[in-house]
Amino acid sequence: MDLRDELPLDHRLARVYRYGAGLCGAALLVFGCLGLADGLAFFSTDGQRVAGLSSNGLLSLVSIVTAAVLITGAVIGGNTASTINIVVGTLFVLSGFVNLTLLDSGANFLAFGISNVIFSFVMGFVIATFGMYGRVSSRLPRDNPYWQARHPHAAAPAPLTTTTRRSLG
């Protein structure tokens, strides 16, 4: 079953996906631009403080590219924004784990500090939650398009009987 095309374009969940991608993308864009504006060394493993986080030029560039992906998802909207949010959020969490192992090593090319790792986990969960909202749950309401796609026989309207036709007027 492919759920990419099941959500109507004007469904209210599309706004959640769009706003989530846009807000998180804007925050990352600001962080990346601040880092590039400070003229940080591109491959420094020490990093300098930008908005409370350790950064270098490479991390600033990665932040801007990630922001562009999220903002593109926000512009497209719908299921595309939801899928982009889920993928980017998952990559943020994985990045947190990878960079946690690289702290205080020569392979710390993004100049991550522990505050960056925590930020990566939190931002990853926030972005992924925006993407999964109303899409992934065991208790979706019956009017949810994802529930209807997973239960096509139960979601079909019941045929009108003689009793229901009389009550409808």
Percent in strands: under 5%
Strand order of the largest sheet: 1-2
Unreliable residue stretches: none
Number of helical elements: 7
Indicate the percent of residues in helices: 55-70%
Radius of gyration, in angstroms, nearest whole number: 21 Å
Give the mean pLDDT: 78
Topology order in helix (H) and strand (E) letters: HEEHHHHHH
Would you tell me the structural class of the helices and strands? mainly alpha
Any descriptors?
two-stranded antiparallel ribbon; elongated; mainly alpha; 169 residues
Structure report:
- The chain is built from seven helices and two strands, in the order αββαααααα.
- It has helices spanning 13-37, 57-76, 78-102, 114-132, 145-150, 152-155, 162-168; strands at residues 48-50, 53-55.
- Strands 1-2 form a two-stranded antiparallel ribbon.
What would a concise description of this structure say?
The protein contains seven helices and two strands. Strands 1-2 form a two-stranded antiparallel ribbon. Helix 1 packs antiparallel against helix 2, helix 1 packs antiparallel against helix 4 and helix 3 runs antiparallel to helix 4.
What topology emerges from the helices and strands here?
Layout: H1 13-37, E1 48-50, E2 53-55, H2 57-76, H3 78-102, H4 114-132, H5 145-150, H6 152-155, H7 162-168
Antiparallel strand pairs: 1-2
Helix pairs in contact: 1-2, 1-3, 1-4, 2-3, 3-4
